[in-house]
Hints:
Elements: H1 3-11, H2 18-30, H3 34-46, H4 52-68, H5 72-84, H6 90-106
Amino acid sequence: MGLSNWFKNVIGNKSTTALDHYKSGIVKAENRDNNGAIQEYSTTIDHPTVDESLKSMALYNRALVLHVEDQNDEAVVDLQRVIKMHGAHTKVKSAAKTKLNRILKRTGQN
């Protein structure tokens, strides 16, 4: 292993963007790697360069995967965050409201 590869492995690749993690989360979710998808969406959400629009989509997608994993309380929190975000696209907010209502109804919280 070359020195530069070793260094990247030790400190991580700082050039990986929030969008890269988001796309990786989508692929992992499609492949039913739910834990991997949740991790990638979380990394997207916490990424220092993420904008509000991408963050809202990552929160929404993470909520969907959390719901599949029966982690409904966490999914509800993510969906509520999306709904409150100023930078979230109208369609993402609308989808979050719909999904939130469905989860609350199914879990008897509505």
